[in-house]
Amino acid sequence: MNVLLVEDEPRIADFVRDGLAERGFRVDTCGDGDTGFERALAGGHDVILLDIMLPGRDGLSVLKELRERGVTTPVILLTARNELGDRVEGLNLGADDYVAKPFYVEELAARIQALMRRLSGDRNGRLQVDNLELDRLERVVTCQGHAIELTTREFNLLEYLMRSAGAVRTRTQILEHVWGYDFDPSTNLVDVCIQRIRRKIATIDAAAEGAGSPIESVRGVGYRFRTAP
Amino acid sequence: MNMAHSFRLRMFLITALIVATVLLAVAIVSGSTFYSFEVRRLDARLCDESWRLDQRPPQAEQQERFAQDVAGKLRLQSTGQLLMTREAPDGRGSARYGNWPLDFDPGQLAWSDSTSRHECRLTGFDSDGRQWRAARITTPGSQSVVAADLSAIQAELWQALQKIAATAGPIAILLTIIGAWVLSGLALRPVNRLRESMRSVDERALDRRLPTEREAREFRELIASYNGMLERLEASFNQASRFSADAAHELKTPLTILRGQLERAIPRAATPELQTSLAEMLEEVGRLASISRKLLLLSQADAGRLALRRVTVDLSAMLRDRIADARMLELTTPISTAVADGLRIQADEELLGQVLNNLLGNALRYTPPGGRIDIRAHATAAGIEVRFSNSTRPISQADRARFFERFYRGDPSRNRGADGHGLGLSLSRVIARAHGGDLVLEPSAESEVVLRLTLPNGREAAS
Questions:
Q1: Domains along the sequence of chain B with CATH
Q2: Three-class secondary structure assignment of B101-158
Q3: Which of A52, B180, B358, B406 is spaced 20 to 30 A from A44 at the CA atom?
Q4: A interface mutation test: which of B257, B271, B348, B430 has the most A CBs within 10 A?
Q5: ipTM surpassing 0.85
């Protein structure tokens, strides 16, 4: 998948490019609005990641002119300044999604994939890791063909871990992704929720009991969905 | 209004006092002018009558008639107010009329210089407890003195004054009162207008200025200084707001870089120890990001520029999800709920979710063992009302008053969670207000916290 990254801060551009490249994206970067606009106009990208604060022409006006010229390449805005205002304006101008700085590359990659799926009309939103299968559209999880009853939160948490299987997620990352901002009931909600998911999986797959659980605790870090050995 | 501190009342009293004093002074001055005029007229007549007495002294048997005639000319009420004497060295034509004091001797009195009228000399003296005015004519052959009781013109003056007081007095008092009241009101009118204009200015409308054209010069200066103050206030407010927005923005780039680098470094860490410490760093970066995000939102709200992306939100479902989360924790704290179904409003889902997260998170965090939590939500005529109440350690009134203060911590020892920035409640309130609603701390027992979130139905909210 070809990504055009328009970002003027080289250190951000570097790790986004590296992080996305590790996940199999081909990333084309440029550091100012005018170059970004020309490259976007030239086409050949599946998605454009557009920073709003750019030297030369700013992100929103690049977006506006691209849409006016009939360029329909999906755009994800990387917002920082005046976060919400730009977010609203950007979406009104025809952006497909936005990611607020500071973001996780993992989150950005997931957004790109979700956007691609949505735009390609992919009705098959399935995730499969090992013997666990998760259907994003039907919102059901099956294990060895048996459905597992999960609450919304449990489903979202499992989906979050499964889509980046093998990668460690910290508790804060999970909390923010699944519960949103500012939810902090002191007792660790993430731990409790993970325990419940593990138990539910174990009732169907006896091998997933205890240390055999597909959700692995990484001491002092967080959790990871185990990939097949 | 406290009457003692009413500016209008004070203005009224002062005005009335001044008017009354002026009226009184006018009365006194005109009264005394009138009196001295009357005295001068009497003097002239006294001189005439002394001259007549001196030149044509009456026969003894005509004395009474002469006295009555003189009294009439002098406008005296009776002859008892008249004294006459004529002395001649040869004794011819000497006469004495009236109740003269026994020791009366014209030579003993201090007479004025001769007047132009008949070279007459004047004086006043006291006798028999009465004030007299006397005129003396001295000719080579005789000397005549005619004296009149001054109480005659004093009484006349007194009567005139009484008459004036009886007719003009009430009118003057009434006019004074009305005039003073109207004047004090008139003086206050620009101030009242100013007060109304000032009332329309609040922290969201700091760019408003009061018009000066229609006001009097004195008030223009006042308004100009008020406008100047507003200007400085707006400038410093904008500066503070821009500062925190800029600071939050400036923090974002390094935070994004830090987060990205840490995210990549964690799976590559050589040892579990390193991995753990990198993860801890990532958590702290998350905390920093959360604070800077809140500061940015607050500064936007302060500047009245908090942009909302309104969609139809099912508040009932949002609450139920969060209540389910709380129950999932299987805490010993009982949670009672009464959430009506289908509470839908136009709101920014992410921000409203943050408000609910914050309120429920606080309730869970601060309810001591053995306490309880109660959450109810229902529709009202104006919109939706959500009430969070929970037990707490006793919170004093002083602490309650500072509940929504930024970075305020009621109990520093307990506030160490990821949200312990003291910004959550303050932000929740500005989000509620940006939606046209509010978040208030209800009065309650010391060991209970009751927060009421109100959100209006439609889009009429200011944002």
A1: 3-157 (3.30.450), 217-302 (1.10.287.130), 310-456 (3.30.565.10)
A2: CCCCCHHHCCCCCCCCCCCCEEEEEEECCEEEEEEEEEECCEEEEEEEECHHHHHHHH
A3: A52
A4: B257
A5: no
